[in-house]
Amino acid sequence: MIPLSHYLILSATLFAIGAAGVFLRKNLITILLSVEIMLNAVNLTFVAFGRFAGDLDGQIITFFVMTVAAAEAAVGLALVIALFRHRESLNPDAFTSLKW
Amino acid sequence: MLALIPLLPFAGFVANATLGRRLPKSVSGGLASLVMLASFVISVISVVQIAGRPVEARVIQEVLYTWIASGDLKIDVTFRVDTLSAVMILVVTGIGSLIHIYSTAYMHDESDSEFARYFSYLNLFASFMLVLVLGANFPLMFVGWEGVGLCSYLLIGFWFKKKSANDAGKKAFIVNRIGDYAFILGMLALFAKFGTLDFQEIASAVATLPSEMTFGVLSITTLLLFIGATGKSAQIPLYTWLPDAMEGPTPVSALIHAATMVTAGVYMIGRNAVLFEHAPQTMMIVAVIGAATALMAGTIGLVQNDIKRVLAYSTVSQLGYMFLAMGVGAFGAGIFHLYTHAFFKALLFLGSGAVIHALHGEQDIRNMGGLKNELPITFWTFVIGAVAIAGIPPLAGFFSKDEILFETFAEGHQILWVVGAITALLTATYMFRLVFLTFWGERRHDAPAVADAHGHVGPVLSDRPDAHGHHGGHLHDAPPAMALALIVLAIGSVAAGWIGIPGNNVLAEWLHPAFEAPRAAAAVAGEPAAAAEPAAAAGEAAGESHEALEFTLMAVSTAIAVAGIWFAYFVWVKRRSIAENAAREFAPVHRLLLNKYYVDEIYDAAIVQPIRVASQDGLWRGFDVKIIDGAVNGAGTIVNSSATLLRRLQTGSVKTYAGSVFVGAVAILAYYLWL
Hints:
The complex is a heterodimer. Chain A is an all-alpha fold. Chain A has helices spanning 4-24, 28-53, 57-87.
């Protein structure tokens, strides 16, 4: 049987990749994808804990997270399209008009 | 009933201050005069009431309500008429009424609203003055004391469009503040020492103490009170405001700056006679300051050219006499002189007002002369006033001044007596110089038209803002209302002294109880009262030689007065050249006197300018601008610059925000996991 620590290490790695993507990529769509990776890394943790604890709580939370992630993707992509129409760019550095 | 005495003029003030603008002059002036007369009638009734009682019960007291009650301090609004305040209320309401009546004619050229304003001030003044003399404790007296100061300021600056009048008003107010500060300190010291501020209670408490031979608490307290008196009563070193106060309308000078307010200091010492008697050190200072002021002001009065300024210095000089009397312990004589002085000095001021009125604002005696035949009523009443102040028997001034000089001599202050006698000579001389230059000879126009080298001494201090120098034509003597006041005061100046004739001194006997501790306290003291008996017996024996001394001194002072008048006649009527030659011969002395010993200039250089410089360069440009403003501006600058730094954090870039959230989350995690 695969020990819990392996799941956690995998999940931490995925999370780090996602976080690095959010900070380093210059394309909003890629950033959204990276956020999805981070969410799924967390989902993996929940499921793993749930399995090792022997109950269903981890899986229930995962379903919630997936629902939120779907909604977030819908709203996020809509915003990205709106922004693109506005600025003709998907680079987040182009959107700094909330600066002082 | 007693409360009505000050309240009636106050009602007049309220009426004239609120409705006066809409009332015709006859109503506003008439109302003001009427409330004064009513107040006078009530005063007479009260005085008659106490006169009908036995000597030791001659006090009426009326407690209106408790004003302040806080811990040990309990102050009632109490009015008290005793023999001393009886004299004062009669003087204030009696002479006050006459001056109100006189003013209705004198101020008639003013517009209705100005006229009403004038009378509302005058009524307010009378009201406060009556509170001052009727108040039975220090704080109540102080209310009146400050109130008359306020009215003095308002009335000196009555013609407020004139800068000199404004300046004079401010000067009077500020100089008085110095004295009042000391007065308050004196009150606090009294409360600290005796735990009460009621005059009678203080007198009773002091009576049980021995006289203070060293310079202790009582001396300091009385000295502080006396400094207050020097401010209000224009004594050295705070007298400089009074001559400038002549900027006010002439009846104001007569009422406030001659007859009543300026005597408040003398009254205050009389009121606290027992207290002052227990501080011989202070008494000596009072006497010396009084004598010095009398002499100094007399010499200045000798060369002044403004008719009202001569009278102002004469007032300072006579007030000096009163303080001399107080200082040598002759309280009765001091109050006697206060009372006679009120008559003849008010008369002289009102007479000078009549002259100024007739000459359309001319005040320089170098431009007068020959008015004897044109203004007969003014002339005769003025001469009566001058004779009275010079001290020719049997007019009022003779008896009071003579009593002061006699008491001074009898108390063993020969040097002070000499000073007083010289002042008497000066008084007679400068008064008759004024009379001769104003009324004798031909009309002159000698005065330089504009300010000469003497600065503000030379130019005419025009009494009326609309004054035009148009001379010539027929002059009008005093109109009926003015003539009435002049004649009544002239009669008073002749007869007022007859209640204090040596040998039958009714006034001294009348006043005597007011200068002693209340009977009950004397009984407690026991010892001193018993000791007084043999002293009185000894006094009986000495009486014989005293009487001889008194008559000798009387003859001397009469001779002095006659000599002064003759000298004035000789110099300013017979040989005008003498005066001019003397002025040229002793030019430095003349200039010194004409410039009033440069006291104003010395005060300016020694006190006013340093305060000004310290305030402007130190407090304003230094402390206020640099430190206060600097702190406020500095706080602003710090906020501004730190904000400039902090706003760099707000880049607007989503990635930096996300980064900072991430770093924060990691930091919190790290904290909980490893720390």
